[in-house]
Design a protein that fits this description.
191 residues, four-stranded mixed β-sheet, two-stranded parallel sheet, 6 helices, 41% helix
Length: 191
Amino acid sequence: KIARYVGLDISVDNLDEARKRIEALHATYGDLFPVDLVECDVAQPWPALPSFDIALYTSALEHLPFELGAQSLRHTAAALAPGGVLYLSTPAAVGPPPRPLQYRVHVYEWSRDEVEQIIGETGLVIENVLGLLPPAPDVLAGALTDRYGDTAAAWYRDLVERVPKALLDAVSAVAVPEVATELLYVCRRPS
């Protein structure tokens, strides 16, 4: 059961939009759990909040300069209760900085090594890394061949012809996070 949801955002406009969406959800489903929306720069000290059992940090880290992103991860880790889990998604950059961005609206895209270093410094343990978005089909087929053999790549090429791209992308990226263009890190604060 969800005891409470707390959403943090620096943008008043984003928070206002979230409030409208929450009102619409409440009208349809009722008031299932309390929701608090807090205006907060996640790279700065956070207001006093109860510890979280779960933190969802998605599609945001890449919109901050590196040091501010690192600081926001430190604050997120500090807010987790013992045994709490952080789900962090972010594009997977390759090569040393400065590197080209996958998307113009991003400020800094982190490499896997950078994420793992900062997460480790926070005291969190990375339990799993899953691919969320796949690379180009030929790169993906090569990675599937490397991991599972030629038959897997042939099967993938067959699926490309028969399975909707959105579904196949989501499923195939999980199998080969080392080449995925976006990753989901599952991190836990030790108990």
